[in-house]
């Protein structure tokens, strides 16, 4: 080997750099472990400890030192499935941005286009592209985007804006730019909120041009609080309010009108004696005071007063909203109240008639106007901080600009004169509605008080300081992982990696002897390089990423196996050890096969990286890095030790007493059985297609949208019982045993299209209320929902995928599979210069994919583990494509070599001999891969068991197809003329 000294130098240098990079991970883990010990299980105390040492020196190398913050920036970051925490994708509402840019245009073409874009948006299509497409179809050239009543308005005129003379193409450029600016603004606001939230190593990034923003908060535990913080648009407004006596006549009329359509039965019960019921009765017991006779008033659970019209149960708010929005009810408003706006207050807890705690919300009536604008906007707020009011209760103090201070003085002066109230409304929720008792308030200072705790006021102040979002930010995808589940994933991944490493190393020693030891040394160096690169890139390690590392161990020895098998052939042909080694490492030896196999593997890995997201991208990252490091260590590191042996003892034989006769005289007429193989595969393909058509697949929420909860119980539970209980409240729900019999995977589509934090909280509370009967007393809602160290019961993992994201994921999956097949086809056609090789390989791949899909379709209903079709499954399919190609290319390379060489025999004999000479390599590689996958399947954890099972089946089928499908298709598609020509050339050569 030339330049051996240079290779040694770079290998040692690379190893030292890898150790240096990994040292930061070890130090960071040590400091975090100390923090956990110090905190004694208190997450707030742990966070404060880490914050307190963030700028302290914790790592000294003698010539330089690093603070804790610097160390954590350089460590290998663990993904949420290992660390625990919250991951969300926020969709900035481009629809709201466009409405804002048009100043809420009433143009019918514009508004129909917005509605059509929402309804018809395709997978991977941005909303703005869908809008432009809909606008073009609806306007049909009659209306321009630059119309004065759409985008050529006062706010978009001027330099860089829209002129009414612009064409649609010109206007589109400006609109795209303005939308991008809004998304950038939202990104900045969210970053500022997150930076002040107090989570170590938060991650926020824009996802291309989709208007989506990814937010990762490792270690975050308060689920509901974080979702509220992220989704709040911080749209602060100040509204004048009606008092109950002003709006009471309307409410009585509304109640009377609703009786005609809503009353179904009469049930006599005690009615809440509040201010509204006092308006309805003169104190005598009348039919009107009977529970069931008053559709609106019967839903009141506590007395109102002043601006509060009454308190209602949160579950009744949708019904009340429906009543108040009905045209036949709204017409009952007095002429000067026709623009009244009914709004709810923030959720609170009150005592009911039996002194039990119940949730309640207050109903307010705001004094609206034709344009639905507040008396004063919150944009004038320049600063906000949490404090305490005059009664010592948590509140938020605000400071306004000079212009805002003047408007505030006028508004409070009016309220003082009229003895009215001012509602402080944030994101369409009334936080408080104080009266003004001491005259106009000057100076621009104001305060928000109410039923807050200290955490809420801190978050509210944070949101107000960071500023408002330009449009609604909806959570379209989310995942919550508890730290305990993350630790289990780490333990499972570590165990499977160690067992897999031991198994591969043992087999290499048993089969190849001393050469196997050299391959194992190369494998150890490969793992050091792999982790060093991950650390230097700041990559995120996920559970699928660990699976990628374990798979790397299985493939790391693949190149060594190819080289060693070639060396054995050369030795059998009478060459010396040194000549055999040189020949096996040459391009005409093993290198061409290794390059072709790994290039196809890299191509499918690259497709997976491009189309994957989150943990799947982590899997692709480790897989791609592992391929490169494996090639380097297999070809160069192992070669150094082999050359050293040749220069010394010269006793390498690449076999042991156990393996020396394996495949020595192996000869099977593979082509003889091609008809049987075609028949068997045809039956499998037909059965698979029929099953896919009738039985379908178990599509996960990644593909169809929905909410998934992994819930642990104290004792084993019956999945069917839980399913029936949840169907009563969610309408549709699925419950399956997930791993142990005290753990269920619960899936529902309930309110998956509603992205607000209120909908998420409602689902969580309904889940808790209906499952708490399966727990002993003491498991509170907070403990059931939120994550904390040592959590063993309740929700240990939760995820949500909105319909639009699911459609994008599904589209990406199709393109990933088809794209990888197309890329491989083109590469093989270029490399082998015969389209028949490409066709044979693609036929084998298509066969393998259909086979795996068929197994999943046939078995998902009764297998004891999850077999969902999700992103993980697509990753498995692409990995199967890569490894199937790897096997096929090795066989094809030998076929090409023999057909181009001087091997004796007929065409069929030459091809058969080609396959037989690769059998040792094919079986060895497949066995090591299957053994590693089996270890992952048994010890890798429940969450990736279906993912690993797909690869297990795929590798097994891929080995079969490379021998019995790919090569026969190649042979059958080569014309008789070409076969005769090849045979003639071989006869002449011999």
Description:
- With 990 residues, the protein is of the alpha+beta class.
- Helices cover 57% and strands 13% of the residues.
- It has 34 helices and 24 strands.
- The strands form 6 sheets. The chain has an 8-stranded antiparallel β-sheet. Strands 8, 9, 10, 11 and 12 form a 5-stranded antiparallel β-sheet that branches.
- The longest helix is centred in the N-terminal third of the chain and has 36 residues, at 4-39.
- The two termini are 33 Å apart.
The SS-based structural class is alpha+beta
Oligomer: single chain
Output the strand order for the largest sheet: 5-6-4-19-24-21-23-22
Measured by DSSP, the beta-strand proportion falls in 5-15%
Rough outline? elongated
Mean pLDDT: 80
Q: What's the gyration radius in Å?
A: 34 Å
Task: Measure the end-to-end span.
Answer: 33 Å
Major β-sheet, in short? 8 strands, antiparallel
Number of helices: 34
- What is the β-strand count? 24
Give start-end ranges of low-pLDDT stretches: 265-275, 279-289
Percent helix range: 55-70%
Structure at a glance:
The chain is of the alpha+beta class and 990 residues long.
